[in-house]
Amino acid sequence: MAKKKKKKPMLSSSAQLGMIALLIPIAITVYVFAFFAWKELQTLPIFEKLEQEKAIEEIQQNFDMEIPEQYIPVYVAAEEKYGVPWTLLAAHHRVETRFSSMKSLVSPAGAEGHMQFMPCTFVGWQHPSCSGLGKGDISKAELMNPGTIKKYGGFGVDANGDGIADPYNIEDAIFSAANYLSKNGAADGDVKQAVFQYNHSDEYVENVLYYFNLYNDYHDELKEAVALNKEK
């Protein structure tokens, strides 16, 4: 049988080496271009937003219940107005209504809304029907009227400027809680006293302070991450 002739390479060894030498800098150039293009893409708002979302998610893993992201700007706005740490407001919200996730926002004792105000505390204890635990005989119109609240020395706040101070409106409720806590010492650093005034129960104080300290470990990071994520 005749031996098959070996095919000669299309390129000589020296030509192949020359080709490789030519391709290496091209490959390096392509790699460098792709690297910097990817870095540039990462500065786009969509990538920055994803980074902030990842940061928020990693922080939230430290909590038994996630703090609803949409509430954090409300807490922060109330902090800026009343000097009460937003993490304390979040802790109260967590303990009072599990971040408003409960089926009813009215307690058996008669506390109402997202932050569970007794009507007399919300509209003011000077109301003629207020006594005892503070349920009173207060109509809805009186309860939510800023003028009535001012008259009777209550803590209800019309935070969104719609002319109504509504404990079932999240902004009004959070600002009202901040108002109450601020006037009872929280803005001056006496957080424990303020929490006790909110609910005269040592167990309640312990629960709120537990969440406050937990959230406070991430006070600045979570505040910044949510703010940046909201801007994107």
From TrEMBL:
Residues 152-189 form the Transglycosylase SLT domain. The chain crosses the membrane at residues 20-38. The keyword Transferase does not apply. Keywords: Membrane, Transmembrane, Transmembrane helix. The keyword Mitochondrion does not apply. Pfam families: SLT_2. This is Lytic transglycosylase domain-containing protein.
